[in-house]
Amino acid sequence: MAYADLNENELSNLHETVSHEYAEMKARNLSLNMARGKPAAAQLDLSMPMLSLLSSADDCIAEDGTDCRNYGVLEGLPEARRLMAELLDDEPDNVIVGGNASLTMMFDTVSWFWTFGTLGSKPWREYDSVKWICLVPGYDRHFAITEHFGFEMIPVELGAGGPNMDEVERIAASDERVKGIWCVPKYSNPSGATYSDEVVRRLASMPCAADDFRIIWDNAYAVHHLFDDEADQDQLLDIGAACREAGNPDRYVKFGSTSKVTLPGAGIAAMAASPANIADLKKHLTISTISGDKMNQLRHVKFLRDGTGIAAHMRKHAAIMRPKFELVDRKLTEGLSDVGECSWLRPRGGYFVSFDAPEGTAKRIVALAKEAGVVMTGAGATWPHGNDPHDSNIRIAPSLPPVEELEEALDVFICCVKLAYLEKLIG
Amino acid sequence: MAYADLNENELSNLHETVSHEYAEMKARNLSLNMARGKPAAAQLDLSMPMLSLLSSADDCIAEDGTDCRNYGVLEGLPEARRLMAELLDDEPDNVIVGGNASLTMMFDTVSWFWTFGTLGSKPWREYDSVKWICLVPGYDRHFAITEHFGFEMIPVELGAGGPNMDEVERIAASDERVKGIWCVPKYSNPSGATYSDEVVRRLASMPCAADDFRIIWDNAYAVHHLFDDEADQDQLLDIGAACREAGNPDRYVKFGSTSKVTLPGAGIAAMAASPANIADLKKHLTISTISGDKMNQLRHVKFLRDGTGIAAHMRKHAAIMRPKFELVDRKLTEGLSDVGECSWLRPRGGYFVSFDAPEGTAKRIVALAKEAGVVMTGAGATWPHGNDPHDSNIRIAPSLPPVEELEEALDVFICCVKLAYLEKLIG
Predict the structure, then answer these.
(1) Which of B235, B227, B230 lies closest to B199, judged by CA?
(2) pLDDT, tens digit, for every residue of B323-359?
(3) Fewest CB atoms within 10 Å of the CB: A283, B131, B141, B381?
(4) Does this complex have an ipTM over 0.95?
(5) Which residues in chain A are closer than 8 Å to B287, comparing Cβ atoms?
């Protein structure tokens, strides 16, 4: 029977039982982590051969003869641009390979639009306010960038097939100070949603009050499928092609990296955009750097080779990740299907399970879990300013702990959900 | 006899001879480069063993147990901060290890001061104009950053012992919109000058109209001596200690990198500043990145170990660089001592020889050299906006070409100096 249907006495008894269970778990002094989307050690091991690919001076020569050990090549090695073009679903000529973090490339891009404008537009800093569409639940580090520059963040609901496009269209058309939108279009962080073709086309073609409206297309999980069979993999329409078709070729900037392909923090990041946007951004990039780390670019090219190589490598990741996602779904189903008011998604890729707890309990759940030694992403982190008005959404990150630890952490989590919900119902 | 003392007939004859010599050189279809401060291949070879230091998963564990293959550690590994503290003459706690380029860290620092202010000061963008002291001859990429943000750049002469401090003090005290100064305090780019203790103390203690005046202390050549004997090495007073002593502890931000210690573009960069400045800058850094490349940090620590290890490694660089600098001085002396109106410095470290040609001939010399297949740094590049009012200073970068090629390139250069000067005298 769902908790909401229980009478006062039943709730009280159940609360006693669950409290007892919680106390026992706490007594075990656990130290488990389901907070951030970090690959497990077993996944990192997959990329160890990459580290030994450059050992002689000859190994360090790029295909055009460039000695990768020396200065130069602002936009990245040709072969690295080709590799990252596969990840970004774009042409190598439209790709800039950067440093170790797509986050930094996104920060810089927003910073440069704000400071200098884009393609000759008025710099965004000259407006009395800048507004930005933030899909919720979403990625906290995206929201942190727009918050840092003082943008007004407008939350719009993200569903299974993408954002609520009626809302997005209404807002984008309403005010020239609405300058953009954060998108994680495939296996979205945290819901796992992939935008439908219709959503991509509507984003590309919608009328915007601002000529310099920009879609920040963070395709962080482009190749991060959980299943090997193509029928079980999400497909995403290319935003670049859609924008060109719609006559808005400069509306998007794509980002991606190998952080969760090879090594987080030691991978390579890249962006792709229209020739006009790339030329514009290079004006700033050429002032701020000489080039990314070409040695690491070359290591990646030699290791991953091409799209086929990336896909083969990602299947090895999937073999490690899949059992964890299956475990999350099984444990939540077993533990919570009778409780009611809880829902979660079963993504086919990415790094997260988005969990919706009974309204008004998320903060309490995360606090209870922490007290019992299980670190979760902060409740509310998936909303701008960390403020979930429903206090409901929690991001579960199952990748880092080994399966046994994950199982233990989920037991604690489920217990905390029950306890917080019971506390709410008892009042 | 100096060219200036020759009569019209003698000049004309000499012009014919030198023109003929130049034509012969041009006919050789050379392709030589003395343009940028790139290490030679032999220098890059010195760091090859570094590339094989991380091959097993165990190799990738930092001293505090951090798995360097995964996300985290914003400010850099403790051992990497310790290593870079030796290079920056500071405490590890005051050090942030960044990505592959100190240029990027400087760009970001200026950008963040401009956008957000520093230690609570008014953001620089809110002033009607921002002014900046640019020592000349200086580093073109520094000037490019302040130009990019629209700062008014005020050139001040840099002599053998550092800047003309009377001028620097006068300007810094004159206007609260004067917000800082670019400094390459040791083996300066391009003159090779090292600031005297008195200069460092005056920079640290001078009254500034702006409370948030900042010395950008780009100690790019901190350990880049040409000679092994300490008596033949320049010593630099620590700007941090000097600023603390003077009661201006937050006035400086230091930068450095291993770009010319290990591999350019594949090294590690770092900054050091007062605890207050570091805390302030980290507020922005934590939004723009998760961490630098810790794998590369660990590689560097394992390879260079500490200050003693760095010094030993730099002696190997010096053995390659020293003959080239000696060759430059010998060739210029042999070729130009009779010509007159030419002067150059004999630096004891760094990457450049600063050459002053007869006034009004530098652009012509560089153009002539280019026509004859020898690429030099653009004339004027050592001045803000690339505009040397004397059209005299040329930066010679002897590091990249092998000795035989360098000799050939210098022959061309000397011929071009003579020809341009003769053209000027003949009128």
Answers:
(1) B235
(2) 999 999 999 999 999 999 999 999 999 999 999 999 9
(3) A283
(4) yes
(5) 107, 141, 144-145, 148
